[in-house]
Amino acid sequence: MPVPRSPGGWAQRLPLPALRQRIGRHVLVSLVLIWGLGSAVILAVGNHFVVEAFDRALLDDAHGLAAHVRGGVGGVGGVPLELGLTQREVGILLLDQSVAAPFAVYGPDGALVAGDSELAADALPKGRSQVFSTMERDGREWRRVTLLVAGPPSFTVVMAEATESRTQLLHRLLIYSGLAQLWLLVVLGSRLLGGIEKHLRPLAALQDAVQQRDAADLQPLPAMLTEQATTLDVQRLGEALDGLLARVREGLHAQREFAGNVAHELRTPLAGIRAQAAHALAQDDPAVWRSELEGIAQAEQRASRTVDQLLALARAAEGGIALSVQTVALDAVVRDVVLRCLPRADALGVDLGAQGLEPGIQVRGNTGLIEGILHNLLDNALRYGRGHPPQITVALHCEPPYAVLQVLDNGPGVDAELARHVQQRWAQGAPGLVLGQGAGLGLSIVARYAQLMGGRLALEGAAHGPGLVASVWLPLADPAAP
């Protein structure tokens, strides 16, 4: 029955065995199974070779006995078959370790020539001259061989021996081999358990280091813990923990930076709103009230825009985690954004146009990020890039494997050093500082969005006359397309 998961997670589950105990148990069980299997194999193989060796010795004895059978020449009335051994010689030849081996010699007509008449011969299969069998006699088990000696004259030799010696030899083989295996397995098990303990020691040290660490300490783990690792898995675990700590540290840094940025950037407009509201409340003239309310509305718009940009930048910083990238019709997205910005451009007296919006330009990206890029570039151009007369152009063309989105204005432009500077957070050019608008976040958002989609941002002066060209390279969905 599976253990139900509780809301507490790992801490609320039933206690689990230690890793070293589980591995040690598996190792010991495996060694015991190997020992049992090895003993069974040794018993089977040993029994085969013991039977084969003893049967061969029994057959050799039968051949030795057959070599002493004489006579049988001349047929009827001739010399009869006989065993040319004395009783003493037979005893020396056929003495088993525990008991004299019974034997019998039968003539061609089946008559007993010598030996034990109760020891009958086995029927021989056709084409064979010898056969082995097992029999019971006097409450003991015997191994019997029947040997047919071709003539003339032909005769049959039957010999038997008790199987106690075979059984004793097999028992000794099993005991000695089993004890040797057991000793080897004890040594091997001790070395394996010692090796497991040694290789798990760095893991225990890593666990202690993590448990004893303060929640506010997000620095990498001591290098000695990784250096002491004796396996690649423990080393990778240490590196993974360091990577996790680094990501948590970056996330906390981003949160602190975001909170600090919001507090810093909203302090000035909120203070201005508070001062204007206090001044309006101290006056009785409706004209002053209207003027102060208009100032408060403008300050609120600047504060709202700053918050929106800060949130966009925070999402951009986290966008790489779950960014949905797909094929996007870049020309359609650019056309929609330009149409939405036309009313604002007309209100400011800016000539806003577009070039190269032919259908068919597709990129790998995210529609929301592309719209954010163009909105920020057009917002910057409408604020700071107005010349005489003010003119802004959105251009689109391909430079495989990229599509290039450009926003060109005829404003004062920037030099190379300032172009690099204004792409950083909170960095503003001279027009922004003079106008007192924005917070220096727009271009950093554009650069981050482009980076998340595998592209880049570049700022350079206009080729002819004053102005600024902001170019964003985005990867084409089909780099081979014209």
Describe the overall structure.
With 482 residues, the chain is an alpha+beta fold. It has 3 domains: 18-71 and 83-212, 2-Layer Sandwich (Beta-Lactamase), CATH 3.30.450.20; 232-312, Signal transduction histidine kinase, dimerisation/phosphotransfer (DHp) domain (Helix Hairpins, Orthogonal Bundle), CATH 1.10.287.130; 323-475, Histidine kinase-like ATPase, C-terminal domain (Heat Shock Protein 90, 2-Layer Sandwich), CATH 3.30.565.10. Helices cover 52% and strands 17% of the residues. The chain has helices spanning 19-66, 87-93, 164-211, 223-227, 232-281, 286-318, 330-348, 367-384, 416-421, 430-435, 442-452; strands at 69-70, 82-83, 103-106, 112-115, 130-137, 140-149, 155-162, 326-329, 351-355, 362-365, 391-399, 402-409, 456-461, 468-475. The strands form 4 sheets. It has a 5-stranded antiparallel β-sheet. Strands 9-11-12-14-13 form a 5-stranded mixed β-sheet. A two-stranded antiparallel sheet has the order 1-2. α1 packs antiparallel against α3 (164-211), α7 packs parallel to α8 (367-384) and α8 (367-384) packs antiparallel against α11. The longest helix has 50 residues, at 232-281. It is rod-shaped and about 160 Å long. The model is unreliable at 1-8 and 425-439 (pLDDT under 50).
